[in-house]
From TrEMBL:
It holds the Pfam family Mob1_phocein. Zn(2+) binds at C83, C88, H165, H170. One of its GO terms (molecular function) is kinase activity. This is MOB3C kinase. It comes from the Eukaryota. It comes from Myiagra hebetior. InterPro entries: MOB_kinase_act_fam, MOB_kinase_act_sf. Signal peptide: none annotated. Keywords: Kinase, Metal-binding, Transferase, Zinc.
């Protein structure tokens, strides 16, 4: 069902961002393959997220941030027809949580946006960061910047908000599309990863605690 659902998404006249890819032959590509293989092997997700012996933590985090961006972007893409200016005039997670957008460029102060506007700004912003060689270097021997993990925390915190919005406001759509198992697995994988490396402030996780 999910494959069919994704096919329908790509057949629509919408443009989805090209997936960020890892270049074959690079250390990150090998790490990505290793991560995907252990994911497919049916291992416990808590074990899957652990840093493999001898690997660099920043490389491991970089691989996962890019992979989660690709997958969450795709999940939101399948939901996007249900998430409109009319249905979701505020980017929120239920009645208690509202997320405002700030990016130090166009929006210097936290600004109220509709959920689809917020998602669009978010995906563009992440894409810009992960394609920036000064932040996510792809060349062998080029070190990560000092603030790398802080940047990743910000990216992952905001990606978590996509799950919050999708679960709280569009769960019926996930079920009707038969995508529930896929979204749940992606969420669990994401959750175990951020917990393993303490990458998100626990207060950010509160909206989904009951779920």
């Amino acid at each position: 069902a999910m494959a069919l659902c994704l096919k329908q998404v790509f057949n629509k006249d919408k443009t989805f961002r090209p997936r960020k890819k890892f270049e074959p032959g690079t250390q990150r590509f090998e790490l990505y393959k290793k991560a995907q293989a252990s994911l497919k092997s049916g291992l416990d997700l808590k074990a899957v997220v652990q840093l493999p012996p001898g690997e660099s933590i920043n490389d491991w985090i970089a691989v996962h941030v890019v992979d989660f961006f690709n997958r969450i972007n795709l999940i939101y893409g399948t939901m996007s027809e249900f998430c409109t200016e009319r249905s979701c005039p505020i980017m929120s997670g239920g009645l208690k949580y509202e997320y405002r957008w700030q990016d130090d460029c166009k929006y210097k102060k936290p600004t109220k946006l509709s959920a689809p506007q917020y998602m669009c700004m978010l995906m563009d912003w992440i894409e810009m960061l992960i394609n920036n060689e000064d932040i996510f270097p792809t060349r062998i021997g080029v070190p990560f910047p000092k603030q790398f993990q802080q940047v990743c925390t910000k990216i992952l915190t905001r990606l978590f908000r996509v799950f919050v919005h999708v679960y709280i406001h569009h769960f019926d759509s996930i079920i009707s599309m038969g995508a529930e198992a896929h979204v749940n697995t992606c969420y669990k994988h994401f959750y175990y990863f951020i917990r393993e490396f303490s990458l998100i402030d626990h207060r950010e996780l509160e909206p989904l605690v009951r779920m």
